[in-house]
Write a structure and sequence with these properties.
It is a single chain. By secondary structure, the protein is α/β, with parallel strands linked by helices. The protein has six helices and five strands. A five-stranded parallel β-sheet has the order 3-2-1-4-5, with helices on both faces. It binds adenosine-5'-diphosphate (ADP). Adenosine-5'-diphosphate binds next to helix 1 and strand 4.
């Protein structure tokens, strides 16, 4: 079975991401969750915080490893022996960007295939942005994220940082 990589910003990880992680961890021998450091977006959580939250959420998944990276995703995939890229598709609106990314990655590195997992209906509306927006208004986000993430968001909101 090939090694798979699930790249993203994970700012912060949501139950939608965790659903994709758990399902793809069952499909592959090893899954590397790759947290993008140099995001063009201005992340709320530092890369260390994002990695720590993901590790806490994935601690019961022995074949899942969380790492951070900078630069081209396909380079990081190759350096880690991963030949499959996992991405989640929420709705048709995700499709255009995702297919462009998949084709570009394939053109740069033909040995790497992208696998799309359809989001569970339950989390199809969920994004890190929506969760941060809710936390900003002190909405309880515990139905959308793991307890450690809800607590981290609560602290950021308390400090007026969300
Ligand atoms: P990026 O900045 O690369 O979009 P994200 O952390 O937002 O990173 O998302 C990483 C991947 O997870 C993407 O493939 C995205 O479509 C997917 N994803 C985001 N939210 C959800 C969700 N609620 N359910 C399933 N997949 C999701």
């Amino acid at each position: 079975m090939p090694i798979a990589m699930y790249p993203g910003s994970f700012d912060p990880v949501t139950n939608g991401h965790l659903d994709i992680i758990k399902r793809s961890a069952r499909m592959f021998d090893k899954l590397i969750v790759a947290v993008l450091i140099n995001s063009a977006k201005h992340p709320l959580f530092t890369v260390e915080e994002r990695v720590a939250l993901l590790r806490e959420c994935c601690r019961d998944l022995p074949n899942v490893e969380v790492k951070s990276f900078d630069g081209l995703t396909v380079d990081f995939a190759r350096a880690n022996g991963a030949s499959v890229m996992v991405r989640g598709l929420r709705a048709v609106t995700d499709f255009e960007d995702e297919i462009q990314l998949a084709h570009t990655n394939h053109a740069i590195m033909p040995g790497i295939e992208t696998v799309f997992l359809a989001t569970s209906i339950r989390w199809s509306y969920l994004s890190s942005t929506v969760v941060k927006e809710a936390a900003h208004y002190h909405v309880d986000v515990s139905q959308f994220v793991a307890p450690c993430v809800a607590e981290a968001l609560r602290k950021k909101a308390e400090q007026g940082n969300v």
